[in-house]
Design a protein that fits this description.
The chain is an all-alpha fold. It has 2 helices and no strands. 53% of the residues lie in helices and 0% in strands. The two termini are 33 Å apart.
């Protein structure tokens, strides 16, 4: 622990632009895992499966949209 340490974050300089398809996959995977861990148990299984299907549909739509983008990056770029 160093209380005097400072970190400067340069927006848009992260690793999402390096592997955009991997970033899309990992984001949707984390969304699925978070829901499953915190909210799936008390919910009706039919609702859970519907939500899982929607996550995958959103993931596929994001992949398809990214195919047609000029820049293959994920997230906002403010350069």
């Amino acid at each position: 622990y160093l209380p005097a340490a400072r970190i400067t974050h340069f927006g848009g300089k992260g690793g999402a632009g390096v592997h955009p398809y991997r970033s899309l996959y990992e984001w949707h995977r984390s969304y699925y895992l978070y829901y499953r861990k915190h909210f799936a148990r008390p919910s009706l299984f039919l609702f859970n499966w519907m939500l899982y299907a929607l996550i995958w549909i959103k993931f596929l739509a994001a992949l398809i949209l990214n195919l047609f983008r000029r820049e293959k990056v994920i997230g906002s770029r403010k350069d």
